[in-house]
Specification:
- It is a single chain.
- The longest helix is centred in the N-terminal third of the chain and has 23 residues.
- The protein folds into two domains: about 45 residues, Homeodomain-like (Arc Repressor Mutant, subunit A); about 160 residues, Tetracycline Repressor, domain 2, CATH 1.10.357.
- It is mostly helical.
Length: about 230
């Protein structure tokens, strides 16, 4: 007599439990999100501790990643530092583009550039600390970056175009170097904020009070425009 097929066993509670406890396959990570998290964590770490004091372990932990991922995306700590610097410069240059200064009357465009630079440094103190760390290492990381140089060429051209429009309108003097002008604007902000504690102590003033900040912005604006205006 032919053997009858054995009926399939009903799943037991034990087998169901085993399936439930089996490791589930995780959804693949988004590489762009992972890279972005690493950059944010690295920016905070470098801004707080500098390149020398920053630790890859802390960056990976803050990013919810591991060191292997960090090295996979960026290679090493120096390359990660360069990526952070490039991102910092890209952010400020993009914000400046959004001002559309070439569409504005030249004196007003310069006023807005000064105000923007002042407010950006106030709102992004990490930018200044990153620059401090880069300068401490003699900009050896930035020297390797073609990206940073390429994003600054149109920025200088924008300032040059504003100056030329002002010159043609008979408002601005001729022969102003756009790079020197921007360095002066940045320096007027950078030195004040970078030395706010020592200067406040020396002169017995709270240089970060709302009134002092407003006075500083007004002084910088008058100083720069006083230089630019044709006499």
């Amino acid at each position: 007599m032919p053997r009858q097929p054995t009926p399939a066993k009903a799943p037991t509670a034990r087998s169901a439990k085993a399936r439930a406890s089996a490791p589930q396959r995780k959804a693949p990570r988004d590489p762009e999100q992972t890279r972005a998290r690493i950059l944010v964590a690295a920016r905070n770490e470098f801004a707080r501790y500098g390149l020398g004091g920053a630790r890859v372990d802390r960056i990976a932990a803050a990013a919810g990643a591991n060191k292997r991922m960090l090295y996979y995306y960026f290679g090493n700590k120096d390359a990660l530092f360069l990526a952070v610097l490039e991102g910092a410069y890209e952010h400020i240059r993009d914000a400046e583009k959004a001002l559309h200064l070439t569409e504005i009357d030249p004196p007003e465009a310069i006023r807005r550039l000064i105000a923007f630079t002042w407010e950006y440094y106030l709102e992004h103190p990490e930018f200044m600390t990153l620059l401090n760390s880069a300068n401490l290492h003699r900009a050896r990381h930035l020297e390797k970056s073609t990206k940073v140089r390429s994003m600054h060429s149109p920025f200088v051209a924008m300032i040059e175009e504003i100056l030329e429009r002002g010159r043609r309108a008979g408002v601005f003097r001729a022969g102003v170097d756009p790079v020197q002008l921007y360095v002066s604007i940045a320096a007027l902000t950078y030195f004040y904020l970078g030395n706010k504690y020592t200067l406040s102590a020396i002169f017995g003033r709270d240089l970060m009070s709302p009134r002092a900040r407003a006075e500083r912005l007004g002084h910088m604006t008058e100083l720069v425009l006083g230089y630019l205006f044709k006499t």
